[in-house]
Predict the structure.
Amino acid sequence: MSLKAKVVANTCLALCLSLASFIGSAQQLNAEQKAELDALKATALKSELSYQLIESLTTEVGHRLMGSEGDKKSIIWAVNKMKALGFDKVWTEEVTGSYWLRGDAKAKIIAPYPHDVVVLALGGSIGTDKAGLTANVAHFETFADLKAVKDNSLDGKIAFVSYQMERHIDGEGYGPAVGTRVGGAVVAAQKGASAIVMRSVGTDNNRTAHTGVMRYKEGVKKIPAAALSNPDADLLVNQLKRGKDVSLYLNMTARTDAEVKAKSANVIGEFTGSELPEEIVSLGAHLDSWDVGTGALDDGLGIGMVMAAAHHIGQLPKRPKRTIRVILFAAEEVGLLGAKQYVVDHKAEMPQHVIGAEWDFGIGRIYKMTPGVGAQSLNAVRELAQYLAPMGVALSPDNNAKGQSDMSALSDAGMPSIDFAPDGSDYFDYHHTENDTLDKVDPEALKVNTAIYTMYAYFAAQTAADFRK
Amino acid sequence: MSLKAKVVANTCLALCLSLASFIGSAQQLNAEQKAELDALKATALKSELSYQLIESLTTEVGHRLMGSEGDKKSIIWAVNKMKALGFDKVWTEEVTGSYWLRGDAKAKIIAPYPHDVVVLALGGSIGTDKAGLTANVAHFETFADLKAVKDNSLDGKIAFVSYQMERHIDGEGYGPAVGTRVGGAVVAAQKGASAIVMRSVGTDNNRTAHTGVMRYKEGVKKIPAAALSNPDADLLVNQLKRGKDVSLYLNMTARTDAEVKAKSANVIGEFTGSELPEEIVSLGAHLDSWDVGTGALDDGLGIGMVMAAAHHIGQLPKRPKRTIRVILFAAEEVGLLGAKQYVVDHKAEMPQHVIGAEWDFGIGRIYKMTPGVGAQSLNAVRELAQYLAPMGVALSPDNNAKGQSDMSALSDAGMPSIDFAPDGSDYFDYHHTENDTLDKVDPEALKVNTAIYTMYAYFAAQTAADFRK
């Protein structure tokens, strides 16, 4: 036996022993349930339902920002679809907040070399005066550089942060980039800027800016905040490199309608458990979207996946033991308003949320699952991972998941969760842009991811394991 | 010797025999010239000049549609750059035409499901009435389908052609798609349509429409013509699939200023030949661009490549035998106006244009060269191909090149040409869009392509071979 053959044999032996030890432990699913799981997997891998739901939502409703006409239409759409899909119960729960109106945003380099440039107002920003504002640009390569200058030193200039987000499979480039978007206007105002313009938080090379939520702070002057497309940020940097003053014109009509309390709603549907109906396995996604694309990826995908997953399970002859609850959250984009409201509304019931998973991260194939569960249930998680492994899902050694986006609020309120991580390499090419449209949805990846969510929900609803900490 | 080894040996033998037969023939370049060619290659592969020129043109001038302010600025820019680069002679030749103003273009699906959609006016189109027009959509999957319906049968509807351009390495998908753009308005008007909206001629998935020239016909009613972005074309098709009437609103303020005769100019510079100054080796590119990006690929690239190639040769201690002439053509986009004017202005001199090559096809690496020369010079072309082969350039077996874009007009007037073909797979992602910007330029591919153009021009200016037919 060659050395190489020996190594292979030893590795096989180790794997076999590990498998044997696993097989030796008590199985969560019995043979009949295992057969149902396999059938659900086959159904989901064939079904066009999740795609059809996304196609319907993006074609018939379109974008749906908190408080907008699209938001209202999407709530009706979701209720009707859930009823048509045979959910045992369907209801809405009111969520209130403010209604921000994007208006128009125009920008132009005035000097030294005039160019129109593409900007979008950041979500929540005020507008400029009607005539717009023209000011020289103060350039900062990073948010830290902007923070480092003295208060009131910018003398009415437009602060420009040119930091470029990095592309990573798990989207880890988002964190270092998004700080400027959320907090840049407050810091720039403290430094004396008249407005802030930042390079879009995005990895694409389109003249399409990326919006997203920003915040003001009590006691700090509100200034307009906008994102510039990546190629236009390059152009601005190249003009600045020449060492002359660069003057920028900005005109934005964004505003928040302070008089109107906007109303939206969480839309909830469930298939009631046959043995433990009070114990809830939840599947989440957010129904709202930014107002620039049709919200196909963010988060039409999640809507389609979780509604289809629950429906497939609802087609079984008998309901699983636990209740499967689909929660379509309102107003995620403007600050998890729906999720926070859900935690308030369901305070007494929160301990009965035995596990939850959200989908809100695009169309890449799922390659990893990370639990955040009580240690006593890790064997059950390993069994689920075993079922998902043939679909390319690896089990993370960590047990610290906190729930994706909305589910993080439920997780903070004590709910165990499982996070499924997809290849997010190109997610930030489209995120919060007008390019977030149906054509970006890969129907084959969608089938696989829907199958994984279907299997997760079925398994969690049938297992005797308790995931709670 | 194994069978495989035998095949390899035989292949080597065949190659060696072929090389020996080539080496046996008279060489066009002597040892000193060969050394100069090698040095030029090394210089071009290191030089940032072509990139710097594109950066300067796109940053300091921007887009430059025939007759616009940018067009005027680009002429001054080109003259100054050529002088700074040491050209022996630099001059301009007037080109006149009309000045088309894009104005704004807005479109919206009104029913059954309201959506804003992204359109651009096609170049040369008229606008709508001030109030815009709203009409039901008549859908055709191909231009042939539109042609097939009866005259005056569309009853004021908006004709919509949804044909999707295919992606190919050599851009061959463009031909089948572009007919609708150029001739669609005439046919749609004959069928009784009030306007024509077509899916953009482009291979991208951005909500960015592709403009490009269209034509009217004497005696046929002029109707507005616009291109719709690919994702919006999908959305419109998906709404139409539902079988209900789909109503579209279109508002365009495009117009041609018929009162003003627009003036532009070909910008020409040359390094005068030391022995055969009247014989011209030409390098072409077009200085104008569409008015939506910064014309970095189309055709800033060509401008940078041909100016840099000539400059590198001009740095040699002695001018090559023939004159190297760089022609930056005006008004290519609106109908090769500069090239046509050049042929008129240089009628007597056309037989002295011994060979020409244009660059107007993006940033992919050159993988093929195709001559269109007198048969007596094919051995010389093979020698050039031998020098270029290490850079990945294969010699086409054909001898039928007609010159890229502008050069086709000179080719029609008798000039021999060589066409260099790059990988154009992604060219039509950006072509005629606002995304045609500097970041799309790959500096490394640009160096290689510039080196190839430098070597072509040097070789053609030094060889004793006569390429003329």
